[in-house]
Predict the 3D structure of the following.
Amino acid sequence: MKNLISESGSCPYCGSHDCEIHKPYETAHNGTRVLLQCQICKKLFSETKGTLLEGLRKPISSIVQVIKTRVEGMGLNAACRAFSIAKNTLLLWERRLAGSQEALLLYSLTHHFLTQVIEGDELYTKVNRNVPPEDCEGWTIVLMERASRFIWTLECGSKDEELFLSAIQVLRDVIACTGDVTLVTDGERRYGHLLFDICHEVIRTGKPGRPPKVLPRGVKVRLKNKGNRSDETGQARPKYEAPHREHPDTVQDVVSSAIHANHLEASNASFRRRNSAYRRRTNTYAKSTSGLQRTLDMLWIVHNFIRVHFTTKQVPAVAIGIIAQGLEWEDVFRIRPLRM
């Protein structure tokens, strides 16, 4: 993680790490900063060039205070009124913070893990106007690692194949860097179907006939059917099942009592408190899908890298082994996003 934060000291023009301090300078509210000079292209730049803090004159402590209230459930307009700031100013801060989510996710995927049990579930809220749930764009897919509570995916949109495919593509990257992955869901079969479609193996036994397709070695998918447990033909489905054939070398160590998404459903209750668009007490709406995704990206960063989880007593990124200690707000603001 130290290398990712120190990217702010690399040259934003040529990417060189051969930079030296040119001279210090004083800021109005954030103390002393330094100008750096690249020894390759000879260009001068501030230590905050390309980071979330570039061009921001407001004290970092004030920005952090406002963002904290937003990720604790205060609405956008309410935060602007409470802290006497312009709406566009707060939107700028939030977009910059949310922009570092992609860099943190890519950094997380560079690590290797022995085993993961991932729970999949969905959240729902209204976007822009009141429409039937099947037509709404406020569905949010969450994929969370059970033991550490680390969230791999927090994506919103219409509940269609495109949204599920986006989440499964992240899961495919997780599988590539994990020795043993178990995906458990409550009733939603599209997780297993899409995962099987985009990453399966062919077992060649040397026997005549078409070789069977199986999930990759070490990958298990378990489904707990809830409610009306019947398929399209009316045949009864078992309460616990593996929807697709698995690799013969995969260790089958999942017991029926472990096939649930209870930990994620408990976290969903916390998300509803910390994001005003998901509250059930009031008839709130998200203005747009992009605005809803911005708040989800901020929540993803805070949940995974900053806030200590009340159950594990650790920051989720620390519990899963990505970083040695949780990040401070100032550390996150000094990360250079992939896109700004």
